Amino acid sequence: RGDLMHLLTLILAALVFLNSSVQGAEYKLSGTFHVAVKDPSGLTYDPVHDSLWTVRDHGSGLAEKLMGGGGGLFEIDKKGKVLKKMPLKASNDLEGIAYRADTDTFLLAEERNREVVEIDRAGKTLRTIKVPIKWGYRDLNHGIEGVAYDPKSKSIFVANEKNPRQVMELTEDGNVASSFEVSEASDISDLYYDATTGRLLVLSHENILLEFTRKGQLIKTFPVEADKAEGVTKDSKGYLYVICEATSTLYVYAPEVIPASAPVPVTPQATTEKAGGKGASQRTPAKPKSSGSKK
């Protein structure tokens, strides 16, 4: 009888563990903040300034002038205050951004041109990588939505919104290393590579965040409150940030248990001047969480 009770206890503990790891219960919403940038998209953490960066494509008219003006990069603090704007006249349709700590540069996802553009802190274009994904003409607005970077392997991850709904890993020189299809959501709006776990966080407009291995195995899902979430990143303390395009809102999630030893970012080669003026894997789809729900 004692052995049976012990076995049942172990089974119950295993079920509790599996439920928490699948549903993603390690973050709790700690605050929301307005961001004075119209239609922000993409998000990345800057360890040099302990700040965040977001992007938006070009706009025109009075509304754009009042709400962040035109396209480009925007540096914001962790409460959404705009610290700096970097206009990029050459950009066409910016959707994602990732910081490279090993070179102190930024990778930008350019949706309609199907490119990843690398720039320095002054906004100078260093190189352009053509992303080898096949789209139809009618899918021009369903292209690259996110970009992420692995400082160890120097791989660049690119997320395509839909048709195909795909995450692609590129080598440093732009060749395809691997890719996988995302069947658990109807679209992809951004992604983030977590160097501390070696996993990818994939964001969807369906108000969910999905965690994958770099080979496409689904690990867990996590509901987010943001309506039409367009950007996701984490800082050096493990806090999760999600930015909403529809309401220009920054959502901050605190880890329920902050690690005793915070993740140490790759030491950047910081400049002294801040930025100025092989087959798809098959998985069982996870049920998206409704907006406003949280664990």
Describe the model.
With 295 residues, the chain is mainly beta. Helices cover 9% and strands 41% of the residues. It contains two helices and 20 strands. The protein has helices spanning 2-23, 62-66, and strands spanning 27-34, 41-46, 51-56, 72-76, 82-87, 94-100, 105-110, 115-119, 125-130, 144-150, 155-160, 166-170, 176-181, 190-194, 199-204, 208-213, 218-223, 229-234, 240-244, 249-255. A four-stranded antiparallel beta sheet has the order 1-20-19-18, with no helix packed on it. Strands 2-3-4-5 form a four-stranded antiparallel beta sheet, with no helix packed on it. Strand 8 (115-119) and strand 9 form a beta hairpin. The radius of gyration is 19 Å and the shape is globular. 38% of the residues are buried.
Secondary structure class reads mainly beta
Q: What is the C-alpha radius of gyration, as a whole number of Å?
A: 19 Å
- Read across the widest sheet, the strand sequence of neighbours is 1-20-19-18
Q: What oligomeric state is this?
A: single chain
Strand content: 35-45%
Number of strands: 20
Outline type: globular
Stretches where pLDDT falls below 50 for ≥5 residues? 9-25, 60-69, 260-265, 270-282, 284-295
Helix content: under 10%
String of helices and strands:
HEEEHEEEEEEEEEEEEEEEEE
Distance between the termini: 36 Å
Output mean pLDDT: 79
The number of helical segments is: 2
The biggest beta sheet reads: 4 strands, antiparallel
